[in-house]
Amino acid sequence: MRWLVLTLVLLASPALAVQPDEVLDDPRLEERARELSKGLRCLVCRNENIDESNADLARDLRLAVRERLVAGDSDEEVIEYLVNRYGEYVLLQPRANGVNLILWLAGPAMLLGGIGVAAVALRRKPTATQNDAALSPEEQARLNAILKE
């Protein structure tokens, strides 16, 4: 029974994509590599980070991160190296500057614009009292005649 429970626990645990031959000897560098890998997109799997992806390209990216860290690069230099090589799409959280700033601001700007258009439309909407003009004497007489019937 214990073997069955142990087997089920092992099968239910998440599979780690990082292979044993990728792991660095220095625990600090390995921790930095893992943290950086969590913020980098697998270009094959789309919205999965390279730390969890089993794709060959994700492995290459993990190895590149580790190589740069061993070479003495800072975290920012490693990220910049990968962005220069693969483009900003490699970042799971794109930067909010340059052309991306337009994308970051477009949603809130359209929401505010929509609220403004709705506010103007509601202000200009004619109310019931504005549409009702006083009846002429002929119309009043006709209305009274209709109501008496």
From TrEMBL:
GO terms for molecular function: metal ion binding. Residues 6-147 form the CcmH/CycL/Ccl2/NrfF N-terminal domain. InterPro entries: C-type_cytochrome_biogenesis, CcmH/CycL/Ccl2/NrfF_N, CcmH/CycL/NrfF/Ccl2_sf. One of its GO terms (cellular component) is plasma membrane. The keyword Heme applies. Residues 1-17 form the signal peptide. CDD domains: CcmH_N. Keywords: Heme, Iron, Membrane, Metal-binding, Signal, Transmembrane, Transmembrane helix. The chain crosses the membrane at residues 101-122. Belongs to the CcmH/CycL/Ccl2/NrfF family. Possible subunit of a heme lyase. This is Cytochrome c-type biogenesis protein. It comes from Palleronia abyssalis. The lineage of its organism: Bacteria, Pseudomonadati, Pseudomonadota, Alphaproteobacteria, Rhodobacterales.
